[in-house]
Amino acid sequence: QVQVVESGGSLVQPGGSLTLSCTISGDVFSIRAVGWYRQPPGTGREFVAEVTNTDVTSYAESVKGRFTISRDSAKNTVYLRMTSLKPEDTAVYLCNAEPYGQNFGYWGQGTQVTVSS
Length: 117
Prior knowledge:
By secondary structure, this protein is an all-beta fold. Helix content is 0%, strand content 55%.
């Protein structure tokens, strides 16, 4: 019912910027929030940022002041603007669409972000 596709990952130098996109299709009106998560190599998945359908945002402490999450309702797309990137930000970044009335969300396939000189 809900499909999630991430895009925008690439290789970027430390200190650089990158914007990821998460496009949602299907029953978009059932979604209460969209979150970005990441999985660094050899580690588990961790929360990065979230925006609700009322534009309430939340961020992990490690990215506060550097990352900004936003949404474009007309395009059914959520963006994650990343600035001042560090090698520690290297990870597969995944988008999760969180519906009302469910104990699980819909995950995208992930997009690779590599921060390296």
